[in-house]
Design brief:
The complex is a heterodimer. Chain A has one domain (about 1-80). Chain A is about 80% helix and about 0% strand. Chain A contains three helices and no strands. Chain A has helices at about 1-20, 30-50, 60-80. Chain B has a single domain (about 10-350), classed as Up-down Bundle (Amino acid/polyamine transporter I), CATH 1.20.1740. Chain B has 13 helices and no strands. The longest helix of chain B has about 45 residues, at about 325-365. Classes of the chains: A mainly alpha, B mainly alpha. The interface between A and B is large, with 39 and 41 residues.
Chain lengths: ~80, ~375
């Protein structure tokens, strides 16, 4: 099942690349670099998520950053709403 | 210039209305009810974050014509810091859009397409949105214009048939515990109202600038009115049960029973939701793509639409393991980070711009 997902992800990324790459003219170096970096990032993240579905995500990052404030506002809201 | 398309002020207003309202109708009644109880319909009227963000978007555009908040930020706080702040916006829009896409998927799978895998629902929506976004701001604006009448008609088709069943005593006592509970409700609502900062990214492409302020104020008023109506209808029908449902407005649509003939009208609500979510996802996706392309100094944003769309699907699956966990995050950490990125940072930028302008004036006078 996991290898099917890997195959599917690879197929999608290859299709996107085949569609977009010919449209990039030779002088568009920045665009080519941006496209390549984003596609590689897509592939890496997708494979990571397939094999480690419990990978800590952006939500956990925000949770950790806002923990003290959330507690403070939670108490305030509880007080206000009675 | 990354974008060559232009839209009219009225299209921009309609786009913003449809960007803010869909998810607000869906989940806000239950979320506000938890803090504001029977005063939940007063909270939208008091929503301050909408006014702040609209004001800042308009004033910043007047100070730096033709530039969105990121480009203006680079001028206000310098190239390096501006780039740092400029990276926050595309990343945060991507993350927020991931949440919206996931909400859309969870709702469609939970209420209608029970046996369809989540990834199919998410993937098809993101694919359609990517095609639209690739077409540019004009296409996004026209879709908003096209869908708004349908959206409002369907909304009224749900509200009007239940009018006879509404029970006014459910809203009593009005402000029984003073204004504090409804004020606490505005902190929940700022999740949606602060999304009006998206206007800052749309403004540079508006052709008739003199109507821009009018149309956005109209959109803000329409959002407030729609939320008051939907929250009031939910409260008057469901009373104290409002907070117990994940999607109270869906219960309203299910409740409709006209002469034993028109029943199970939740498909109406599903139509509203799909139309609204489509425009919302398109608008956020467009801002993500545009600001990412500007950040990387690309000459064209089209090449990165599909890679970012794929990333959007990944993010939407990555934001939370399940719906309950996501709802918890939305009302706590996501709410605070939306406030930081969409209200606090723009307010800071605007304040600095004002100070800079005043200092500059003083220097010239001497």
């Amino acid at each position: 099942m996991k290898w099917a997902a890997v195959l599917g992800i690879t197929t999608i990324l290859v299709i996107i690349t085949l569609r977009e790459w010919p449209k990039l003219r030779p002088e568009m170096k920045r665009e080519k670099a941006a496209f390549a970096i984003l596609t590689i990032l897509d592939g890496t993240l997708a494979f990571l998520l397939v094999f480690y579905p419990d990978l800590p995500g952006p939500t956990q990052g925000l949770d950790a950053m806002t923990k003290p404030l959330v507690k403070f506002f939670g108490n305030l809201m509880a007080e206000w709403s009675g | 210039m990354v974008e060559s398309g232009k839209i009219s002020a009225s299209q921009a207003g309609k786009l913003l209305y449809l960007t803010v309202i869909p998810t607000a109708i869906l989940t806000s009644p239950a979320m506000i009810f938890k803090v504001a109880k029977q005063d939940l319909w007063i909270s939208p009227i008091l929503a301050w974050s909408g006014l702040i963000t609209v004001f800042i978007a308009l004033r910043l555009h007047r100070m730096f014509p033709g530039e969105n908040i990121i480009q203006a930020g680079e001028r206000i706080i310098g190239k390096f810091l501006g780039k740092m702040v400029g990276l926050i916006f595309p990343l945060f829009y991507l993350y927020l859009n991931g949440i919206v896409v996931r909400e859309y998927g969870e709702f469609v799978v939970g209420a209608l397409l029970v046996n369809t895998p989540l990834i199919v629902v998410l993937g098809s929506m993101v694919l359609v949105c990517a095609i639209v976004v690739r077409g540019g701001i004009e296409i996004v604006g026209r879709f908003a214009e096209l869908f708004l009448p349908a959206f409002i008609t369907l909304f009224l088709l749900i509200i009007v048939p239940i009018l006879p069943d509404l029970n006014i005593s459910n809203m009593l006592p009005v402000m029984g515990e003073g204004i504090a509970p409804s004020l606490a409700g505005t902190f929940v609502l700022q999740l949606w109202f602060s999304e009006f900062i998206t206007y800052s990214f749309i403004l540079p492409f508006v052709t008739d600038q003199k109507n821009a302020a009018k149309s956005i104020m109209f959109a803000l008023g329409a959002v407030i009115l729609t939320l008051v109506v939907s929250n009031l209808a939910t409260l008057l029908l469901l009373g104290g049960l409002t907070g117990d449902y994940a999607y109270p407005f869906l219960i309203l649509a299910r409740y409709i029973n006209l002469a034993e003939f028109f029943t199970h009208l939740e498909s109406l609500f599903m139509a509203i939701w799909v139309l609204g979510a489509f425009v919302k996802i398109c608008a956020f996706f467009y801002v993500t793509v545009l600001s990412a392309a500007q950040w990387m100094n690309l000459s064209d944003y089209k090449p990165i639409v599909y890679p970012l769309g794929f990333l959007l699907i990944l993010v939407s699956l990555w934001v939370a393991p399940n719906y309950q966990e996501m709802t918890r995050a939305i009302s706590t950490s996501v709410n605070l980070s939306i406030f930081t990125v969409f209200v606090a940072i723009p307010v800071l930028l605007f304040g600095l711009a004002c100070v800079k302008k005043a200092v500059h004036k003083n220097k010239n006078r001497r």
